[in-house]
Design goal:
The protein is α+β, with helices and mostly antiparallel strands and 172 residues long. The chain has one helix at residues 3-44, and strands at 47-53, 66-68, 76-77, 81-84, 88-95, 108-113, 116-122, 133-139, 144-150, 163-169. The chain has 2 domains: 1-41; 50-170, Jelly Rolls (Sandwich), CATH 2.60.120.40. It is 24% helix and 34% strand. The protein is elongated. The chain crosses the membrane at residues 12-34. This is TNF family profile domain-containing protein. Keywords: Membrane, Transmembrane, Transmembrane helix.
């Protein structure tokens, strides 16, 4: 093999080795940073609490009474109002569906934290539902969450139709 051909092949192999090394370094950096973010996200959102309305729901001052599907006594207590027991960020999702729609009445649903309005929605007269209302809120221990429906009416207590999802995220 002539000297010139061997010299150009060595240059090509050196270039190829450099490119592969750079690609490996890039993949290692992405792997480390993506893995670090994923583990933090998992560590922060470990507690979830899903509430569904009581089958035999009763209204006291237009409030919906909730039962926990995944109870965690250290996080939230169930009832007409949900007592928050830990400081942190809470991802709140609410959907309320009526048993039947009355087109002449406009129904509203409110989720309040210590009488501070967090979520507010209207019942759609075609679907009889609010759809999904959601928000992340920083809540402190000792406060209460309550859902009110005005005017009072009968709600669909199916878990897929009426539910309050509460996902807890610890403060850093």
């Amino acid at each position: 093999m002539p000297q010139h051909t061997r010299h150009s092949l060595i240059n090509v192999l050196l270039l190829w080795t450099a490119i592969l090394s750079i690609v490996q370094v890039v993949f290692i950096v992405f792997y480390i940073t993506a893995g670090h973010r994923a583990s933090e996200q998992y560590r922060c959102s470990t507690n979830a609490h899903y509430a569904i309305p009581c089958e035999q729901h009763t209204f006291d001052d237009k409030r919906i009474r909730w039962l926990a599907k995944n109870p965690d006594a250290t996080l939230i207590s169930e009832g007409d109002v949900l007592a928050v027991k830990k400081d942190g960020y809470y991802f709140l999702n609410l959907q309320v569906t009526l048993r039947s729609c009355e087109e002449e009445k406009e129904h509203t649903v409110s989720l309040k934290w210590n009488n501070k309005l967090l979520l507010h929605g209207w019942i759609n007269t075609k679907s009889c539902s609010t759809g999904l209302l959601g928000k992340v809120e920083e809540l402190s221990a000792g406060g209460t969450l309550g859902v009110t429906l005005e005017p009072k009416t009968s709600i669909n207590t199916s878990e897929s139709e009426t539910h309050l999802d509460i996902i807890y995220m610890r403060k850093p």
